[in-house]
Write a structure and sequence with these properties.
685 residues; alpha+beta; 31-stranded mixed beta sheet; two-stranded parallel sheet; 14 helices
């Protein structure tokens, strides 16, 4: 600019007057006593909000982001509120407002509170007492608070809709002074944490309490700025601890923490996570928890559930209409007793107590009452599933266990399972076990869209070794061999395995091929004393099982045999019978028919019956008594004649194994199962 012109402007009276006016305004507002406008401001806010508002001191620092400071603030509660008469009482309140963001939203970059006592309340109809416009306004608030700092205060939050109650006590401290006091157990040896929050409350009627340590300032809402946090939570028997960073305390937008959690059962987490986690033995887990957007991920997951180790990763996606839980889990050594409570099984490892429903697992008195109601003499699991929980979430979970620890020495070896839950329909496919040298392949489908769960269970035994199914035998007894195949198809309705079985329809079928069995056992099954004595003197040997087939049709929980035959080289065993899944009882009769002539035979049918828990067997006395009576009668005439009724004439016939195989295979195909193992090298009838 030309110097002469610049001098002219400086001397122009209009510019001089304007400069003086600006200076006067600045001096005026700098020296202005804002308490002059305090009374009309109190009246305006009280009238606008229909709540009492007052403060003893007011100061404003102007700018594009002005800062307002008030002392002894009192703000009344909404007329409909059920809590305290005051929503807020604060010894010192200081906050800033961004004028750039008006009127779209009221952005408050910073709030500092000294000795606040705050009560926030929400009704089931979504009315909130912190909405500062119309008291009945339920629209989203335009107020956004970015950061918050608290010096010795109390906050209470009451949500009558969830229901959820929370009380927080906040205090600040000097880390250096605390370190000198050697209070390291409560506050770490660093200066990251300067504020301590003690909290307690209840969520869905489950009580909790804990403590959190943070820095001077918390990001509060829609800032995305992480702040350090170390905390612990106690909720009944559940303990959780975290350390890391969290963004936006009021509406969490980011998490990056190390998490440790332990408790008596995973089912107790339901009130807090609203996840239908199963009842489980005591657990201890840890991992790296991260929240980005609507996705929670848990990496480096490791720990134990009962005596089983578990590792892997998981994720939780908050989406509509249902959240999605995913998990990929591995176990080197999985104890099946730890999975028992999942399906309502009582085990010695769990103290032998009957399982309780998931809905009752968080209430110990209700659980004890349920335990008394379950009949301990029953085998089928009676623990009830809460189908409504399956309606609240979708899930995709995979589990692989390299080694299984099995109660009561069942021949289970490994496990591979894949679970999919979509729209209250649960499918476990595959559910494969290594079983006695073969495979137990199962598929389970549950439909929980109605109050009563519909179930469809398919179980297939494939190429199972007979020798590994039988108990250990003395060296003098030859051990069985060969392959067994079986299939089970049952459909039912009920909220426990016992209930569903009691109403089940379907079929159970089995076949055995290329088998061998102890000759001693074969002789003993026919009560052939002469052959038993010969084998004991000369040594046992294997005999071939030519074929075998069993088929039961099941209707309304009752099964009836349509086929029951086992054919060896020396004996044909025929059977028939039934079982009742509702009352857990069975009654089966097997009749061995030796094919060869023998001496000292007391062949007679054997009846197997009783409950699933306490099976019994007995020799059918009629045929046996007749043979013994005949022997005693002839003995009175001639001792040698007494042997005549004990001579086995060999009435057993050769079984048409091809027909047996076709009958079993047809039943399996009709039930929708895979082909059972066929005969190889069997002798033609």
């Amino acid at each position: 600019m030309n110097p002469s012109r610049h001098s002219l402007l400086r001397r122009h009276p209009i510019w001089t007057a304007l400069g003086l006016l600006v200076a006067a305004v600045v001096v005026f507002f700098a020296s202005f006593d804002w308490n002059w406008v305090r009374p009309p401001l109190e009246r305006y806010i009280s009238k606008k909000t229909e709540r009492e508002f007052r403060t003893s001191d007011l100061h404003v620092k102007l700018g594009l982001t002005p800062t307002i400071r008030m002392r002894d603030v009192y703000f009344g509660n909404a007329a409909w509120a059920k809590g305290e008469p005051a929503m807020a009482q604060v010894e010192m309140l200081e906050f800033s407002v961004s004028l750039r963001d008006l009127p779209e939203k009221i952005l408050v970059p910073r709030v500092a509170l000294t000795r606040p006592d705050l009560v926030f309340e929400r009704l089931p109809d979504n009315r909130k007492n912190w909405i500062l416009s119309d008291p009945d306004d339920t629209s989203p608030s335009k107020l956004r608070i970015s950061t918050l700092s608290v010096d010795h205060g109390r906050l209470r939050y009451i949500d009558h809709g969830e229901p959820f109650e929370l009380e927080v006590q906040g205090t600040t401290f000097d880390p250096a002074a605390q370190q000198k006091a050697k209070d390291a157990d409560a506050r770490p040896d660093n200066n990251r944490y300067t504020t301590q929050y003690d909290f307690k409350g209840s969520y869905h009627h489950a009580r909790f309490s804990g403590q959190a340590l943070t820095g001077d300032v918390l990001s509060f809402q829609e800032s995305g700025v992480p702040f350090p946090l170390q905390g612990r939570l106690d909720a009944g028997t559940t303990r959780a601890a975290i350390e890391g960073t969290i963004a936006d305390a009021a509406d969490i937008s980011g998490i990056d923490v190390q998490l440790r959690i332990e408790g008596q059962t995973l089912a107790n987490l339901y009130p807090f996570l609203l996840l239908p986690l199963p009842a489980s033995p005591p657990y201890r887990l840890q991992g790296h928890l991260v929240l980005k957007g609507n996705r929670y991920t848990m990496d480096d997951l490791a720990g134990h559930i009962g005596s089983s180790d578990v590792s892997g990763k998981g994720a939780y996606i908050d989406r509509k209409p249902r959240p999605l839980l995913t998990a990929d889990l591995r176990s080197k050594r999985l104890n099946l007793a730890d999975l028992g409570p999942l399906i309502g099984v009582q085990t010695k490892e769990s103290g032998g107590k009957p399982a309780v429903s998931q809905s009752e697992s968080s209430s110990r008195p209700a659980a004890k009452a349920k335990e008394k109601a379950i009949d301990p003499d029953h085998v089928l699991p009676a623990g009830r599933f809460d189908g409504s929980r399956l309606q609240k979430i979708d899930a995709e979970v995979d589990l692989v266990a390299s080694q299984l620890v099995v109660p009561e020495a069942l021949p289970l070896e490994s496990l591979k399972a894949s679970l999919r839950l979509q729209d209250a329909r649960l499918k476990v496919d595959p559910l494969d076990f290594g079983f006695a040298g073969g495979t137990l392949a199962a598929k389970v489908a549950l439909d929980a869209r109605e109050p009563t769960i519909r179930s469809d269970v398919q179980i297939d035994l494939q190429r199972v070794r007979v020798g590994e199914l039988l108990p250990a035998m003395p060296a003098t007894v030859a051990k069985g061999a060969g392959r067994v195949g079986a299939t089970l198809r049952l459909k039912g309705t009920g909220n426990s395995i016992a209930d569903a079985a009691a109403k089940a329809d379907g079929r159970i079928a089995a076949t055995v091929v290329n088998g061998r069995i102890s000759n001693l056992l074969d002789a003993a099954s026919g009560l052939n004393g002469g052959k038993v004595l010969t084998l004991l003197a000369g040594g046992d040997k294997d005999i071939v099982i030519r074929c075998g087939g069993v088929n039961f049709d099941v209707a309304g929980g009752r099964g009836k045999s349509t086929l029951f035959v086992v054919d060896t080289e020396q004996t044909q065993v025929l059977g028939s019978g039934s079982f009742d899944l509702e009352h857990e009882r069975f009654d089966i009769t097997v009749a061995p028919k030796p094919k060869e002539v023998g001496l000292l035979s007391l062949r007679t049918p054997v009846r197997l019956h009783g409950s699933f828990k306490q099976p019994e067997f007995e020799i059918v006395k009629g045929p046996l008594a007749a043979r013994l009576g005949a022997a005693l009668g002839l003995a009175a005439l001639n001792p040698l004649a007494a042997l005549i009724p004990l001579i086995e004439t060999g009435p057993g016939e050769e079984t048409n194994c091809g027909a047996i195989q076709r009958q079993v295979t047809g039943a399996v195909k009709q039930a929708g199962g895979p082909a059972l193992p066929g005969r190889q090298g069997a002798r033609k009838p």
